[in-house]
Amino acid sequence: MIVADEIFQKLGMQRDEFIHLMNGKRENTAMQTLDIEYMELAPDRVVMTMPVGPKTHQPAGILHGGASVLLAETAASIASFINIDSKKYAAVGLEINANHIKSKSGGIVTAVATPLHKGRKTMVWDVKITDELNKLICVSRCTVAIIDNPDAKR
């Protein structure tokens, strides 16, 4: 996993501590179930991968559109998370749309999330999902709400 140095500085963590935190966020979630992995984490670019196979197939044996949407929203939510003070705020999906461009029955898909808007209360991310040949599989736009962290000690 490639992590931008500015993320560690902003969060006041060491690299190992941050990676442990992020890996902990995968446990017992859809990310773990679908084998979604972090590849690159930076304030203006998050890259994640997901294998395409039985766990992510629809009955026709191709990548389920919902799995693509899940990957896109995960990338946008993680991108938002690394841009906020997570002690005070949480990043949650508010709206997502997706256009499924090309089918895929196996291999790996890669989601790249880049910001369209990074505000105090909302962030909007452009997410492109491609295959190993860089062919576009899905394009998505996700709006993420920045809310008070329900776990914050007040």
Walk me through what this model shows.
This protein has 154 residues and is of the alpha+beta class. It has a single domain (2-148), classed as Hotdog Thioesterase (Thiol Ester Dehydrase, Chain A), CATH 3.10.129. Helices cover 26% and strands 40% of the residues. The chain has helices spanning 5-11, 15-26, 30-33, 65-81, and strands spanning 2-3, 37-42, 45-52, 89-100, 107-118, 122-130, 136-148. The chain has a seven-stranded mixed beta sheet. A hairpin with a 5-residue loop joins β6 (122-130) and β7. The mean pLDDT is 94.
Number of domains: 1
Strand/helix succession: EHHHEEHEEEE
Q: What is Rg?
A: 15 Å
Distance between the termini: 34 Å
Oligomer: single chain
